[in-house]
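ok so I'm stuck.
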Amino acid sequence: MPLSHKWRVLLLASKWDRCYVPLYEASARGCRVRLLKTLMTNSCRNECLYCPLRCLSAQEKRAWRPDKLAGIAVKLWREGIIEGVFLSSSIPRDPDSSVELELETARALRSMGFTGYMHLRLMPGVSRHLVAEAAELADRMGVNLEAPSADVFEEICPDKGSFREDILKRMEWAKEEAERAAREAGSRPYGACRAGLDTQMVVGAVEDSDLDFLSTTEWLFKRLGLRRVYFSPFEPVRGTPLEGREPCPRSRVLRLYQASFLLRDYGISSAELGELVGPDGRLPDRDPKVALAELQADRFPLDPNSAGFWELVRVPGIGPVAAKRILALRARGQEIRDVWDLARIIGLKRAVVAARYLDLKGRGLGAYTSA
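replied:
not stuck anymore, here's the structure
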């Protein structure tokens, strides 16, 4: 069987773990990292209702040998084609054996001198000693949550284990082991889970609510310190129990991402965002930061020369970086007198938006008006 065929089977088939192309770019804080992303195997014992790799699937089953995959990855890395690897897997037998194959690949990579970025996806129900080793080898790791609540999880992943014990407890272990690995890493420039934890949830596979996604995401950020929560829009797959269900609109996932960043970086709560959720359980299809500012119009207009950081970041057009620039400008004794002063900090397009929510003493675009 040619190698190119294995690439198609094991890389392109892993759509529910956010894998769309064999070599893809991951984004983080404005940077893009080229990764080799693959499953160790597509053979699975589970019957998740949405997944094309479910146990009863007729798809061809393939697997990587850890040494073979490590050799390919190191070659691509040394040639500058990739900057890192993302290893995940289906579960043909048990969680530990699947994760051990990932770790065997990770150990081989590090032993070959690979110091690039490494992301490991752990399996539900994995043993703690394997979580500990993953924290030492990987720059980022996580367990896929799949759903925002236990009832939705049990509906779409009926045989994947306990939501509380096999998923959430493992994520708690990941947090603890990541903290330990960071303390013990010293000056080593890779591993030790330095890029933090992440997870993924499938949106729209069954009837679910954006408020549940927002509440769970807020808990993951605050309680477990996750760096990122990914939302994968459901798409019906022929031959699965949900093949007749409508796909999740991409716009819904976009709004969830925007809302998740407000939870993570802007001091906004899920309860506040929940006020935007309509009777259909969905956020409106518009920028949630603008929608929330209009809902909370009594907060505006703000004086940019006296407002605090957490007040400033609520202003549409002003993010955490811009808010810090404004505070630094003020610390040097300078004022924002008009929209042009603001434009020099955040650009004219953003300044025009932000000025609607700011008191610029009547100069330029003054007091708040609804967009």
